[in-house]
Amino acid sequence: MLQSGAETYRAEDTMARMAEAMGLEDSHSFVTPTGIMFQASESQSAKLARIIERTTDLQKVAAVNDVSRKLGSRDISPSQAHIRLMDINRAGHEYAVLLQIVTAAAASGCFTFMFKGSMADIIPGILCGGAGFSMFLALHRLVKVKFFAEFSASFIIGLLAVIFVALGMGQELDKIIIGSVMPLVPGLLITNAVRDLMAGHLVSGLSRGAEAFLTAFAIGAGIAVVATIF
Amino acid sequence: MASLSPISIILHLITSFIASAAFGILFNAPRRMLLQCGLAGMMGWITYILLATRLDVVFATVVATFIVGVISQLFARLHKKPVIIFSVSGIIPLVPGGLAYDAMRQFVESEYNLAIQLAAKALLISGSIAIGLVLSEVINQMIIKLARLRRPAKSEIKLPLSQPPKDKPSQ
Questions:
Q1: B:61-80 residues touching chain A, CB 8 A cutoff
Q2: What is the nearest CA distance from B151 to chain A, expressed in angstroms?
Q3: What is the pLDDT of residues A170-224, one digit of tens each?
Q4: For chain A, which end, N or C, has fewer CB atoms within 10 Å of the first or last residue's CB respectively?
Q5: How far, CA to CA in Å, does B98 sit from each of A100, A170, A179?
Q6: Complex ipTM, two decimals?
Q7: Chain A CA closest to residue B14
């Protein structure tokens, strides 16, 4: 659940609810974006789980939430719930990779318009966004360093945007770039970080903030390299 | 942009809808919820666009996210799904990703004064997004509690229907 981008308090809440449904009264959990600690009761030892990869997968969040709800209302037994959770864990992305790239491209085009780009900028925005996002997906699969994938994706975006403007297909370089980096940009992470901080989850707020900062830095650096070349 | 023509408003509606729904796909939202994701994003963005021409950007963001939050709570109730599905896709158009990127670019190009300005602005806007979301959540909880006090645990499903009028005065 945490790997799929749920808020920390939601993960804590879900665990508490599940534990209560199974008859464990005094369970404790401590959740940060990089690890979960959970103690079922005073007499048992605590368990630790490490979270290595973090993405956003709302499908999984919804599915786990559903299981915990049903467990809470005694619709399913703990063993059934366990089987379902395992199924959820194994499930992949619901949408095909091609569809993801197409939607990323469409979103880029829309953002180019929404951020006051002119009509002529929309098509380059779509192309740059699609190329950048497919680059990101491909590299992220090859190398497990997210930073590098983000850096090269934004590099490609910058390069393509410069070429399009030079060819006369687009007008405003800035708008095209901003529109097409939107699928990569960590806006959601920043917001989540601030939200965690406000809710008093200081550790998770800071670590999410650091992650967002790194991502933004990678993207900014990728574009800046292009900007310095031309 | 001082005033918006009806055509550009319609274009903004369409583009923000597509963008939010597209992010729903990128975030792997359940297939049946994509329409609602897009709707939440659309309402938020149109509020923002209409308010940002007259008011401060930060305030416009707070109001827009508040509306996104209320809509998300409503959809969450109706479809029995966690709120985050709708709110995440809904706030995407409002999120200062462009600003954060811009700030970083200025840093990398060693334009530090401008970079700090932009970064501070991005931080403020993301703070206001968080405030808007928390605000809608708090109000939602208050309504639930008040309703429980009045009629103990009976009319929980009907609540969302009585919710929309509540956010009108704050607009």
A1: 80
A2: 21
A3: 677 777 888 888 877 776 777 778 777 877 778 888 888 888 888 888 888 888 8
A4: C
A5: 21, 19, 8
A6: 0.73
A7: A110
